[in-house]
Amino acid sequence: MTGRGSKSIPSLLWAGAFVTSLFLIVPFIGLSQRTPWSMFFQIISEDDVVQSITLSLVVATSATIICFLLGLPLGWVLARSQARGLKVIRAIVLLPMVLPPVAGGTALLFALGRKGFIGEKLDSWLGITLPFTTAGAIVAATFVSLPFFVLAIETAASQLDPQFEESSLSLGATPTRTFFTTSLPMVKSAIFAGIALSWARALGEFGATITFAGDNPERTRTLPLQLFVALETNPERAVVLGMLMVVISLSVLVALRGRWIGTQ
Amino acid sequence: MNTVQLLGSTNLEEKSFEFSLNTNSNKSISIIGPNGAGKSTLLRVIGGHQPLETGTLKVNGALVDSPNEKIFIPPHKRHVVLQHQNGGVFPHLSVQDNIAFPFRSRKCSKRKARLHISGILEEFNLQAIQTRFPHSLSGGQRARVALARSVASNPDFLLLDEPCASLDVEATVEIHQHLRRLKTTLFIATHNPVETMKLTNYIIAIEQGKIVQQGNLKELTSKPATPWISKFLDLNLVSGKATGYSVELNSGERLHLPRKHFGPVQVSFPSSAIAIHTEQPTGSPRNRWEATVSSLDTDGDLVRIGLNGSFFSRATITDTSFKELGIELGTHCWASIKATELMVLPSMDPDKK
Questions:
Q1: ipTM score here?
Q2: Confidence class of residue B348 from pLDDT cuts 50, 70 and 90?
Q3: Are the C-beta atoms of residues B160 and B83 closer than 8 Å to each other?
Q4: Exposure of A63 by Cβ count < 10 A (0-12 exposed, 13-18 middle, 19+ buried)?
Q5: B256 touches chain A (CB under 8 A)
Q6: How far is CA B252 from the centre of its chain?
Q7: What is the pTM of this model?
Q8: Which residue, of A47, A125, B165, B173, is most buried by count of CB atoms within 10 Å of its CB?
Q9: Within 10 Å of residue A89's Cβ, how many Cβ atoms?
Q10: CB nearest to B105's CB, from A173, A185, A186
Q11: What is the residue extent of each domain of chain A?
Q12: Given an 8 Å threshold on Cβ–Cβ distance, is B105 in contact with A186?
């Protein structure tokens, strides 16, 4: 980091790096400056805020579990299969990463909403409606965080040295056993990284949630939605909620860094 | 008796490979050839990690790969273990769990597997490090773990891809010692002529995706099919006991060494370094011995000569000097070699002590 190696970096790049860092840091300085620290704990322990925090944790954690179950097979197949059509699938998987969440939410609404072509059948056949329910918020959060998990798994699976899986097969383990005793343990750190990333993304989800699941104070008003509502009515509260999300996200990043440096 | 019969072709990364071989009853087979010739690919075909595109592969008489008949027995159902160049020791498992892996794969309980492996841990001298993880082991220790794990699988065939390529001399000698004791049939892909001569009795030579020659060492050294083979096997190998600057060969002959060595050693020297004289030589080369010409093979401008003395050796001389010497089968002559041409390797083979 320091010492002789850094001499090869032109000063122009140092200047650019400094400006960029400043640009990223300034908003947080602004936020912490406006945060009424004395009222911080009082505000975050108010009933509806606690409810939002709980709801956010439930939604983000459920979405992450679904990402794990759905994303693991897909990421693995994308990494390993040469089948045709997978390129198209990969592009579609990545779409929610670059698509404005509000557009994703609209798409979900017209597919799974009450009048959507699948949502209609869910409603009439099974009596399930997603909009304005916590399940709907979980669907929206899953939709936007899935690409992060799939990508993490795909990268890890394609970088895994095939000699270990071949050794396992050679030593008599079936392909299924090889997957569980050799492949999965060897991509453990990528799985943790994928879990942390998709959890963080799900926690911050706003656009798709409000479009698809709507704003229901008990069932769908997660922390970002609560923050949005507070911006209109109670700016002080909005600042505290913003700061709270910074703290949570930062902890996730720190935990993630430890993982990445730790076992690989 | 273990046999492999293969007649087939496969493609890998836009290269095509054609293999035709029959190992008969040989117990230890080496696969030699230049880099990228297809040594590993041949091992992968036999192990089931690279399917054939045409032809058939029979292991112990049973058809295991035949695209025409839609037969392909997957690797985990073949009694064949492929050990990769780096050993493929699982980094997330301890030494004992690595070695227990083949037992666990066959639905053995953890407790029973521990029981099975205790003998193997002892055989490979791994008891002291059995709870350690691969990243904390030396290259030699990891190689022992890899071999012990392959042996634990009790295969009919053990396919080794350059088992000693990244090991130092001591570790190589140790692995060779273990390999000589194994009862399973070995296929060893190797870059090391000493390994070929010491460990195997049948040689398959591959060049550019095709098997160019197969047979025992004598057949390949007396009539090498290609210049590469002749260059690779251009080596004499004798064992003895070193005492400082000289070595007493098992045959009783003494050779002078370029450096000090002690204890059991193996001495190798290229056949092209041997000079042949019809009269007792005098002068600089200090190593000389009497011999009789036991075989003569011409190969273009070169002549390969088998020399029967107190030990057998092979010499390669030019056609011109062959004519000047005027030797023929049965001629009594003298062979000499400079001490600096001798390569000395420590040996721990108990049968050679």
A1: 0.81
A2: low
A3: yes
A4: buried
A5: no
A6: 26
A7: 0.80
A8: B173
A9: 15
A10: A173
A11: 44-262
A12: no
- Is A81 strand, coil or helix? coil
Q: How many CB atoms lie within 10 A of CB B294?
A: 14
Q: Could you tell me if B101 lies within 8 Å of chain A, comparing CB atoms?
A: yes
> Taken in order A25, A28, A30, A36, is the CA torsion positive or negative?
negative
Euclidean distance between CA atoms B9 and B19, whole angstroms: 6
Residue B33 φ/ψ region, left for φ over 0, alpha for ψ in the -120 to 50 degree band, beta for the rest: left
Contacts with B, A 127-186, CB within 8 Å: 163-164, 166-175, 177-178, 181-182, 185-186
pLDDT of residue B352: 38
Question: pLDDT by residue (tens digit) across A222-255?
Answer: 989 989 998 888 888 899 999 998 888 888 778 7
Question: Which domains are seen in chain B, by residue range?
Answer: 4-228 (3.40.50.300), 236-352 (2.40.50.100)
How far is Cα A51 from Cα A54, in angstroms, rounded to an integer?
A: 5
**Class of residue B128 by CB neighbours under 10 A (exposed 0-12, middle 13-18, buried 19+):** exposed
The predicted pLDDT at position A1 comes to 47
Q: Identify the CATH number of the domain defined by range A44-262.
A: 1.10.3720.10
In the block, tokens 């350059």 appear at: B162
Judge contact between B156 and B59, C-beta under 8 A.
yes
Whether residue A263 lies within 8 A of chain B, CB to CB, comes out as: no
Partnered with residue B283 across adjacent β-strands are none
C-beta atoms of B88 and A181 within 8 A:
no
pLDDT digits (tens, 9 = 90+) for B152-176: 999 999 999 999 888 888 888 889 9
Q: Is A3 exposed, middle or buried (0-12, 13-18, 19+ CB in 10 A)?
A: exposed
Q: Could you read off the pLDDT of B253-283 as tens digits, one per residue? A: 888 888 888 888 888 888 888 989 888 877 6
**Using a CB-CB distance cutoff of 8 angstroms, which residues of chain A are in contact with residue B76?**
169-175, 178
- Assess contact for B252 and B310: CB atoms under 8 A: yes
